[in-house]
Design brief:
This protein is an alpha+beta fold. Helices cover 30% and strands 20% of the residues. It starts with a helix and ends with a helix. The protein binds zinc ion.
Length: 252
Amino acid sequence: MSITTDQIVEGIRALGVRPGDLLLAHTSLKSFGEVEGGAAGVADALVQSVLPGGTVFVPTFNFSQVPWDRNATPSLTGAITEAFRKRPDALRSDHPTHAVAGIGPLAGEILADHDKHHPFGEESPLWRLWKRNAWVLLIGCRHNSSSMIHVAEEVVGVPYLNRTRTQKVITPHGTKEVTLRRPNCSKSFNRVDAPLRGSSKIIDGTIGPSKVMLMRSQDIVTVASEMLRRDPMALLCDAGTCEVCDEARTYR
Ligand SMILES: [Zn+2]
């Protein structure tokens, strides 16, 4: 039996999301099995869950896979985010590797000027959502998908922040190349789960077969920052298990 849009809205509301709230969602379409309306149906449920008056955001990252064109470059962070960014009511931030899409009254303000800031640095969309204590909703995925944890790396100023990469950007005058900060690997971000649970900061639920978690961005950043202040390498993969994290460990 397929899950309906209404059931997804009910499931999100049952966790504690209310009309008018600010919400950042990381999502897995597959986690629902069959779903009414497919990815677009789930995108619609996300929007409806904060109506009236709320604003919802999703990552629409392309990393540096293809040259950046704000209106055309597909989101590589899942089918739901791609359906979301294609809606006529969606705005998308202008960041060549880590754009965020939003729908609702605060979308314009939160997404503005992302091209002038690091992906998750001061005044990036996720930084601004942290400052406003937005909800973070994980649908069928875990903290290793939770980009808010990168904000904690910025807040603490971990030594591996300044890794960069180049990315092509399509402009009206041709393609140019820009050098951008490259966020680190997130494979080990599930380490925040135990301390968040230890202080009862995660609300668990299910929507059909999908396991969902809801938490506040300030709780995530507080807990992850405490871990990183104790050990700036706390969120890197174990030595020898991940090339990206091994390289990050060489930065001082
Ligand atoms: Zn890693």
